[in-house]
Design goal:
Keywords: GTP-binding, Nucleotide-binding. It comes from Amborella trichopoda. GO terms for molecular function: GDP binding; GTP binding; GTPase activity. One of its GO terms (biological process) is cytoplasmic translation. By secondary structure, the chain is of the alpha/beta class. The chain has 3 domains: 88 residues, no CATH class; 161 residues, P-loop containing nucleotide triphosphate hydrolases (Rossmann fold, 3-Layer(aba) Sandwich), CATH 3.40.50; 76 residues, Beta-grasp domain (Ubiquitin-like (UB roll), Roll). 27% of the residues lie in helices and 25% in strands. The chain has a 6-stranded mixed β-sheet with strand order 2-3-1-4-10-11, sandwiched between helices. A 5-stranded mixed β-sheet has the order 13-12-16-14-15. Helix 1 packs parallel to helix 5. The protein is globular and about 70 Å long.
């Protein structure tokens, strides 16, 4: 692929190669169940607890365990040699009424996505997180950032990206139909047909709503991609000069800290909260004041009154009549709403049941 010139005539050929590559990568990650081969990348057995899950990923000896110890008060062994942490150590941060589970994962090395140094286990546990913190060492060069990104991308994790805005629907007959609402510079019908035939798909409807690349189409066909927000935590900033810190400051999605001296840990928590994008909802029993100490935490994508009821108890919806809501999501205080109503952060909700 590196040797091929990129132009309109070769786009078709490159698309085909990319599809082949993605397919082979997937087969590497998920060995066939026949024969005595090992299973797919198994994660560490850590029960999910709390409202959200954050994973610490990074090379050995960048200060992941120190950070876990300072933020959660859990003990994870810290020493000056590499690979001190050998399994996954969980801890819990209580922040703004939410319980956030923090996982200290063992250090990964180059080639982790191909199974080196328990890398596959580390990355498959990272796939279950709601947010990933890539811990970098301020003294070591920023090339580490690229290496870790490459390892995670190779395992189907897309950092700080939105899922591609294109629809792909298989059908029984009628060949490949391709519609687009914008001018396409990367994909044409030939390339799409080549990619689809590689996956043995000969009948499908594909519609694009933006200028997508061959990689985006392959991601949608594969369907096993995870889109996870990510923060680059630059640790050990006490060992570099202010000028170097200003250069690092140009990185997007970045947060400088010193775990050992506890610098800027509040700023990091603030940023984790912002990236997790959680919604706090307070409950109000009838005739009493709202309970501001113990909010119900919902994710930003699923925050209707129905999701709120399910979070408390699954039988609640059977007796649901309507809800009274105080807060920024309604015009009147209180307002009667149905179960489709979307809630905002720090709303107060009272559920009225059928008698």
């Amino acid at each position: 692929m590196a040797r091929t010139q990129k132009n309109k005539a070769t786009a078709h050929h490159l698309g085909l190669l990319k599809a082949k590559l993605a397919k082979l990568r997937r087969e590497l990650l998920e060995p066939s169940s026949k024969g005595g081969g090992g299973g797919a990348g198994e994660g560490f057995d850590v029960t999910k607890s709390g409202d959200s899950r954050v994973g610490l990923v990074g090379f050995p000896s960048v200060g992941k365990s120190t950070l876990l110890n300072k933020l959660t008060g859990t003990f994870s062994e810290v020493a000056s040699y590499e690979f001190t942490t050998l399994t996954c150590i969980p801890g819990v941060i209580g922040y703004r009424g939410a319980k956030i589970q923090l996982l200290d994962l063992p250090g990964i090395i180059e080639g982790a996505k191909d199974g080196k140094g328990r890398g596959r286990q580390v990355i498959s546990t990272a796939r279950t997180c709601n947010c990933i913190l890539i811990v970098l060492d301020a003294i070591k060069p920023i090339t580490h950032k690229r290496l870790i990104e490459k390892e995670l991308e190779g395992f189907g994790i897309r950092l700080n990206k939105e899922p591609p805005n294109l629809t792909f629907r298989k059908k029984d007959k009628g060949g490949i139909n391709f519609t687009s609402t914008v001018a396409n510079t990367h994909l044409d019908l030939e390339t799409i047909k080549a990619i689809c035939s590689e996956y043995r798909i000969h009948n499908a409807d594909i519609s694009l709503r933006y200028d997508a690349t061959a990689d985006d189409l392959i991601d949608v066909i594969e369907g096993s991609r995870k889109y996870i927000p990510c923060i680059y935590v630059v640790n050990k900033i006490d060992q570099i000069t202010i000028e170097e810190l200003e250069i690092l400051d140009k990185l997007p999605h970045y947060c400088p800290i010193s775990a050992h001296l506890e610098w800027n840990l509040d700023g990091l928590l603030e940023k984790i909260w912002e990236y997790l994008n959680l919604t706090r909802i307070y409950t109000k029993p009838k005739g009493m004041n709202p309970d501001y100490d113990d909010p119900v935490i919902l994710s930003s994508k699923r925050r209707t009154v129905e999701d709120f009821c399910n979070r408390i108890h699954k039988d609640m919806l059977k007796q649901f009549k309507y809800a009274l809501v105080w807060g920024s999501s309604v015009k009147h205080k209180p307002q009667r709403v149905g179960k489709e109503h979307e809630l905002e952060d720090e709303d107060v909700v009272q559920i009225i049941k059928k008698v």
